[in-house]
């Protein structure tokens, strides 16, 4: 059953060639080692970035320092945020993975409710409020300290990013397609056990992977991690995404209310009219990734004339731009420092 559950490997990444661990060198090798040490396995959502070492390091930085590293919030609460954001973004792969992780941490009822799209059915009131906030449907409870709220926001932004790249490059489930329906529950239980987090590693160990962002002074570890990642992904966008496409995506994301545009793709074509014909394929993929990654198809990817590195960097840039905007739209309330009321 373990073999069945883990049969979906790095070969399941679509459209780009993943650097195999035995062939990894330099920054890719350094990131792979950290991912295996701190996350427990080299997960495809990380490895899919490997054609661009800087994008890989940026993706790991935001995931590790928000979800995996020790902080004031519990890992279970952070998994609630990860699963709820993933459900809102219609990313079944991430919902399944982080639902299994949440179940392994002792809250299978919350995991099942989130996966079913029924946040209101979560039994625990605080967990229910946290999941609703992650979906943009309410504020955080007033007794959550500012530092803990920042960690939740970091997890939310990280998964707004990862949901988008996963939707483009991976299938709908971490389980192999040939696992029969009657065996899926058992396979999920085994994989959930393997995904159960251990003691959280110290914060900040991944900062060494990327240089400090220009102009940034001393700050907390989480802010530093996101600043370094943002600088790396912006540089990747400058290399691989035409400037007119970047301007269009920024403008559209800024004006967007965050609601999924639905099943129809009719919304995207009129927006491409301002681009030169040679940039419309890149513009289409970038806009779809940013606003409706679940609508990206093989034809959209094939139409873009790019190397593996260029393709990863285009998708990463569009996904991160949308993720930052999603973080800015999260409901906020005046933070209150109150160690006595700290969750987790």
From TrEMBL:
InterPro entries listed in its UniProt record: AhpD-like (IPR029032), AhpD_core (IPR004675), CMD-like (IPR003779)
A Pfam family: CMD
Record-annotated Carboxymuconolactone decarboxylase-like domain positions: 55-101
GO molecular function annotation: peroxiredoxin activity
Transmembrane segments: none
PANTHER family the UniProt entry points to: CARBOXYMUCONOLACTONE DECARBOXYLASE-LIKE DOMAIN-CONTAINING PROTEIN, SI:CH211-175M2.5
Protein name in the entry: Carboxymuconolactone decarboxylase family protein
Organism listed in the record: Amycolatopsis eburnea
């Amino acid at each position: 059953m373990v073999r069945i559950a883990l049969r979906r490997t790095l070969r399941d990444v679509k459209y780009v060639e993943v650097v195999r661990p035995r062939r990894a060198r330099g920054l890719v090798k350094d990131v792979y080692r950290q991912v295996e040490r701190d996350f427990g396995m080299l997960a495809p959502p990380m490895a899919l970035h490997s054609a661009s070492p800087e994008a890989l390091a940026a993706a790991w930085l935001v995931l590790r320092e928000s979800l995996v590293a020790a902080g004031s919030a519990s890992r279970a609460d952070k998994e609630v945020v990860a699963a709820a954001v993933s459900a809102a973004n219609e990313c079944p792969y991430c919902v399944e993975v982080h639902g299994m992780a949440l179940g392994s941490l002792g809250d299978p009822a919350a995991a099942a409710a989130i996966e079913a799209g029924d946040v209101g059915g979560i039994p625990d009131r605080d967990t229910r409020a946290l999941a609703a906030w992650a979906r943009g449907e309410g504020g955080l409870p007033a007794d959550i300290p500012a530092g803990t709220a920042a960690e939740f926001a970091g997890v939310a932004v990280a998964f707004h990013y990862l949901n988008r790249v996963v939707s483009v490059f991976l299938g709908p489930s971490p389980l192999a397609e040939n696992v029969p329906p009657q065996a899926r529950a058992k396979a999920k239980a085994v994989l959930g056990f393997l995904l159960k987090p251990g003691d959280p590693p110290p914060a900040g160990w991944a900062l060494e992977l990327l240089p400090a962002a220009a102009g940034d002074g001393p700050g907390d570890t989480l802010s530093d991690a996101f600043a370094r990642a943002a600088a790396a992904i912006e540089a990747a966008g400058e290399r691989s995404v035409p400037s007119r496409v970047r301007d269009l995506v920024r403008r559209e994301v800024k004006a967007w209310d965050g609601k999924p545009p639905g099943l129809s793709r009719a919304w995207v074509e009129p927006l491409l009219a301002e681009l030169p014909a040679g940039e419309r394929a890149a513009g289409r993929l970038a806009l779809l990734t940013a606003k409706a990654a679940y609508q990206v198809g093989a034809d959209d990817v094939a139409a873009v004339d790019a190397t593996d590195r260029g393709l990863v960097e285009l998708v990463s840039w569009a996904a991160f731009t949308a993720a930052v905007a999603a973080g800015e739209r999260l409901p906020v309330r005046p933070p209150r420092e109150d160690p006595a009321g700290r969750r987790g």
